[in-house]
Write a structure and sequence with these properties.
six-stranded mixed sheet; five-stranded mixed sheet; 33% strand
């Protein structure tokens, strides 16, 4: 009996030890989409907080930026949706560290997990550009849009189109020869490097390209099933350009449309076209025109989601058609002017040095005083008086010869 009891106790102890050793270790982390710590001006970036756990517990999330304080939408471009933190259009102020906190409430206890920070740095260099047609972040269901990766100088087919969240086929099979079909698109018949998509819920998300030159900028596409959308440019607009905002209705006829900026009504249009689109034109845009825009019907029953209009601060950050910065020419002008100023200063310095050298040489030969002690050692040149005496001696000798000759003829 004692042996049986001892064996039971040992079995129970082994079971408890096994449960203790197999206790789940929870870990929370922040992932960045597109992947990497470098982000580009004007693009869309998504941060995702995930708890590595095999259980199905419900977690609540809090986001932090720079220092441990809750980042409850620190500015209108930053949007928080539970475990997701999105930056609509990146600016220089978005550089820094981001982390999240996951919390689980139990019956008697609570579990709090804090992730390691994800540090983002904003690159000033323009990235390889992704082409989106039409250039808008909002698109109606069943409409068509195309995404084209940059053209690489090495190999135009080396770019790979990426998307987050990925479709199930892309996660399980990866990319293959037809790079568009795993993402829900087809290859364009006219342009083999372009993917054509029909807007459905599964085709919305973050798109970017990866290739030998790094990655392109990213754009977030939202597929709308609502009654009205506002189409704004998907990428930043340079200051001084003109921009057109398109308020498009799904059905019906609305002769009057109101446009809003940052929640305040700015203008009302009474025009309406056959394609159910009302246009708003902003001429010579400035930094003050940047913000969230939306449109609504006259009775406010139909209202579009807000769309961010991004304005590039200056044209120096823009790129030309061949991908080189337009500010290069201005930089060369400044370099040439600087070199000219340096050469002029060197020339003036050389002239001054030559003049100083010649002045010192002149003073050494003409103006340097000679002491009396050195006069005996100096061999003085013949003076004017010495020359006169020599000439007088020569004349006297000639006269003596003449007198001798006369005396000779006289005798």
């Amino acid at each position: 009996m004692n042996i049986f009891l001892i064996a039971s106790l040992l079995s129970w102890a082994a079971f408890v030890l096994q449960v203790a050793t197999t206790k789940e270790v929870l870990k929370v982390s922040v992932s960045v989409w597109p992947p990497g710590s470098n982000i580009y001006l004007g693009e869309c970036v998504l941060l995702q907080c995930a708890v590595e756990s095999n259980s199905s517990f419900v977690w609540s999330y809090r986001w932090f930026m720079y220092k441990p304080h809750t980042a409850q939408t620190p500015n209108p471009r930053h949007l928080v949706y539970g475990d997701s933190y999105s930056i609509t259009a990146v600016t220089r102020e978005d550089a820094g560290s981001y982390w999240c906190q996951a919390e689980r409430q139990g019956s008697n206890t609570s579990t709090v997990l804090l992730s390691q920070p994800a540090t983002l740095s904003v690159s000033e260099l323009p990235p390889p550009s992704l082409t989106l047609t039409p250039s808008t972040r909002q698109i109606f269901r069943e409409e068509r849009f195309t995404v084209q990766c940059p053209v690489s100088q090495i190999n135009s087919s080396s770019w790979m189109l990426k998307k987050y969240p990925q479709a199930h086929r892309a996660r399980t099979r990866g990319f293959h020869a037809n790079r568009c079909s795993p993402l829900g698109g087809v290859v364009s018949a006219d342009m083999p490097d372009t993917c054509v998509f029909t807007a459905v819920r599964g085709n919305g998300g973050l798109y970017w390209c990866e290739g030998p030159d790094g990655r392109s900028n990213a754009v977030n596409i939202t597929v709308s099933y609502g009654a009205v959308i506002l189409k704004t440019p998907a990428f930043p607009i340079s200051e001084g350009d003109n921009v057109v905002l398109y308020c498009q209705y799904w059905t019906g006829s609305n002769n009057t449309t109101a446009f809003f900026k940052n929640g305040a009504e700015i203008i009302t249009y009474s025009s309406f076209s056959a394609d159910r689109v009302t246009k708003m034109i902003i001429e010579n845009v400035t930094q003050a025109d940047e913000g969230f825009y939306k449109c609504a019907s006259e009775d406010k029953k139909m209202e579009s989601p807000e769309s961010w209009l991004s304005i590039r601060r200056d044209r120096g950050n823009s790129t030309s058609s061949d991908g080189t910065a337009e500010s290069t020419q201005g930089s060369w002008i400044w370099i040439i002017v600087s070199c000219g100023i340096v050469l002029l200063c060197l020339t003036l310095l050389a002239v001054w040095l030559v003049c100083q050298y010649r002045y010192q040489m002149f003073c050494t030969r003409s103006c340097w005083p000679v002491s009396k002690e050195d006069l005996s050692a100096v061999e003085l040149p013949a003076t004017k008086q010495d020359v006169t005496e020599v000439q007088w001696d020569l004349s006297w000798m000639e006269m003596s010869n003449l007198l001798d000759k006369k005396s000779y003829h006289g005798t």
